[in-house]
Amino acid sequence: MTHRSIKMKLIALCLFLAGLTVTAQDTYDFIQLAVKDGNATVFIDGTDRGPAPFFDGPLEPGIYQVRVTAPGFEDWSQAITIPSATALHKVKLVAATTGLSITSRPSGTTVWWRNQLLGRTPLALNAIPTGPQTIILVESGYETLHHAFHVTGKAQQEHAELIPSTASCVIRGLPPGATVLLDDVPRGTFAPAKPQLPGLVAPLVLDGFKKKKYTAVLRYRDVTSAPVVLDLSEGHGEVHLSVYAPDKEVVLRSGKKVRCMLLQEREDGSGLVATGNTPRDHRHIPAEKIERVQDIEQP
């Protein structure tokens, strides 16, 4: 055997031994996972093994089915053979998408998500990750709404009801013909609820106000009621106002006088109905007791 052939055989033997050494160093009997996204859970052969990051070993040789789940992401799965040539498996989760329909009242409301303008309702989305989400709905004349919900990963519909940014109120009172003032601004006049019942007044229903407190008064001719606070801070309020300003006087044959704000002849012609400060404050005056009816001089 020549010197050259001996040298070549020695080199081949060294390379063979070196290869055995590398193989021994690069095989691992454990599973180690690094998951970038938080709240991930690791399953091995279908069994919950706890949160990521994950390490388990030493393991018996074989094939292990590994699955990683996290809210808002698609599942990651892979079959890992032990011994494995990989010491660390880096798991990158992909955001899950779903079919989502968003409607609102009023329709046409602007929808924002994570500082992104998504469009106007009704809106169909397929790029919202599963899990807890919040969208912001903005529309002129309405309060901005933060709508929180849970994206299930399946087809779903979310509906949002926006609250008007203005307030409304109901004002009841007497007499008909009296004017309602809020913060000294006329807002409407009372009218009879029914022509045949002039003493029964229909309430005033008003809207378009700022959400705050107002001072409400009722003015009838030259008489003004005591002020009442009307609180519209919560978007709605009710108040009752009345003022007593009689302008008619029935003089009875006995010499007594009956003052009233409304005077109406009875349908059967048997007398008059005199209405005072409320619908219940009225008198039926027989015709034979009436001397005359006269106006009250206003101061």
Question: What features would you highlight for this structure?
Answer:
single chain; 30 strands; 4 domains; 1 helix; 5-stranded antiparallel beta sheet; Immunoglobulin-like; 4-stranded antiparallel beta sheet; 299 residues; mainly beta
Kindly describe this structure:
The structure is a single chain. By secondary structure, the protein is mainly beta. It has one helix at 3-25, and strands at residues 31-35, 41-44, 47-51, 54-56, 62-69, 76-82, 89-91, 100-105, 110-113, 116-120, 123-125, 131-138, 145-151, 156-161, 167-174, 179-182, 185-189, 191-194, 197-202, 204-209, 213-220, 223-224, 228-231, 236-242, 248-252, 257-260, 262-265, 271-275, 282-286, 290-295. It has 4 domains: 3-91, Immunoglobulin-like (Sandwich), CATH 2.60.40; 100-161, no CATH class; 167-242, Immunoglobulin-like (Sandwich), CATH 2.60.40; 248-295, no CATH class. Helices cover 8% and strands 53% of the residues. Strands 16, 17, 21, 22 and 23 form a 5-stranded antiparallel sheet that branches. It has a 4-stranded antiparallel sheet with strand order 3-2-5-6, with no helix packed on it. A 4-stranded antiparallel sheet has the order 10-9-12-13, with no helix packed on it. A hairpin with a 4-residue loop joins β25 and β26. The longest helix has 23 residues, at 3-25. It is rod-shaped, with a radius of gyration of 43 Å. Residues 20-24 have low confidence and may be disordered.
